[in-house]
Amino acid sequence: MVRNVSDIKKFSNKTYPQAPQMSDFPIVKVAPSSNKEHGRTVLKRSLRPLLTISQLASAAPFHIKALDPDSNYGRVKIFAIGTMQLLWGAMLLFAGFVAVSYKKQWRLQQSNMPFFTYILYNVDLYLGLANSLMIFVVCQRQRGGYDEIVTTMEKLSADQSSVEKDSTRLRNMFSKLLLIAVVHLVLLGTFEFIHTGELTKLSTTLAAQFVPNVVQVFSLMQYAYVLMFIYLHYKAINGALVTMAEVFKSDLTSCSNSLNALKQQHHQLHLLAFRVNELYGMLIVMSAISVLVGTSITCLEVYQFTKNTELFREWGIHAVLGVLWGGLYIGRIVLILYPNHLVENERDFTGLLLQNFPSMEDEQYMIELTVFSRLILHQKGSFLVCGLTYLNLNLMAEMLGALTTYLVILIQFDQSTQY
Q1: What's the CA dihedral at 74, 77, 79, 82 to 10 degrees?
Q2: Which of 109, 132, 253, 417 falls 20 to 30 Å from 216 in CA-CA distance?
Q3: One digit per residue, pLDDT tens: the chain, 419 residues?
Q4: What superkingdom heads the lineage (predicted)?
Q5: Helical (H) or strand (E) element with 389
Q6: Residue 169: exposed, middle, or buried by beta-carbon count in 10 A (0-12, 13-18, 19+)?
């Protein structure tokens, strides 16, 4: 790797143009510390709808200090609020375990149910409760992690000139996503009631499967929010680099300062993505397993009901239920993988943009450009979660292949019980 202009000339016969001495270039500067309060206000306004509904579901801790540092919440009050949240979560889990026990009596106690199918049903039910328990406990224990992530986001918001536009876009995006999720869940509950026809069975399904899925969805939406925040900031950095490459009319000292500021922001965004994937790593892995098992069971149930049902109305209800449950499972995995896909592509695109910058006879400028390019080179690749799998869209293709295999096996077991 070259370190200065003399090293570059040694390996190239290219003639380097002199830099124009003009000062009409739009330099990107780091915002002063006085803007941190503005960044906090904008971030709080953008994050509030998602954070509030997540707190009500015990999927996020009440009172994140980084969002409200001037509040008079002491340790005792924070501990009391955290305890109440855990008690609310414990009540949801107790209702879930009771519902699972009741559901097993009328759904799983079939004399001809294959053993493998029986195991998958139990894994689906208990894994949802286990994931909810993990979310309730971890969100309280990792309160400091929430503060760390929010503080980094506030700093990056203060340093970004397009913070208002990006925050508004994030708020609108996740408000629409919350609305879609609520409508989807209402439709799911409605069709479950039409299918079961009994309030007891509906309550059992809601407590055993519906509530755990809701808790996981709201937790994963927080994860997706941070990644989309990173994606939009990467996009803003790339937009600034495009402008700098197209309108190269400034003195190189100012350009070097701008590259240094953008490099620092880019590095902070990468560290933030790494940190949030580290905090949510176990939930991501368990959610992926839960999605695979739940989707397999849903497809099997659709096959069983439609095969044994002659009436078109009942067949249609089973098919719609399968689509709604399948959409819920698919939505969870999309919340994990698609934001990571966007972040990875936009991060790597920065390296392509840096290639458009010309080489100049200015040591400081060449050092900044080389270090920035080296930084991008070391950041390439997808994020590895828990040392098990990479978070990219290839994982969805692998899960689809595994789902097809499991479904074929389940159908074969189901057919073997009929003979």
Answers
A1: -130
A2: 109
A3: 434 434 433 433 444 333 333 233 333 444 444 566 766 777 778 888 888 888 888 888 887 777 776 667 667 777 787 888 888 888 888 888 888 887 777 666 655 667 777 788 888 888 888 888 888 888 888 877 888 888 888 888 776 666 677 778 888 888 888 899 888 888 888 888 887 777 777 788 778 888 888 889 999 999 999 999 999 989 888 888 887 766 664 555 567 777 888 888 888 898 899 889 888 889 899 989 888 888 888 888 777 776 665 555 667 777 888 888 888 888 899 999 999 999 999 988 888 888 877 777 667 777 887 888 888 888 777 888 888 888 888 888 888 888 888 778 877 776 665 54
A4: Eukaryota
A5: strand 389-390
A6: middle
Write out the residue range of the structural domain in which residue 257 sits. Answer: 41-417
- pTM reported for the whole predicted model: 0.82
Structural domain contains residue 29: no
Judge whether 69 lies within some domain: yes
Q: How wide is the angle at C-alpha 277 spanned by C-alphas 274 and 279, nearest 5°?
A: 110
In-domain check, residue 258: yes
Residue 389 dihedral angles phi and psi, to the nearest 5°: -150, 155
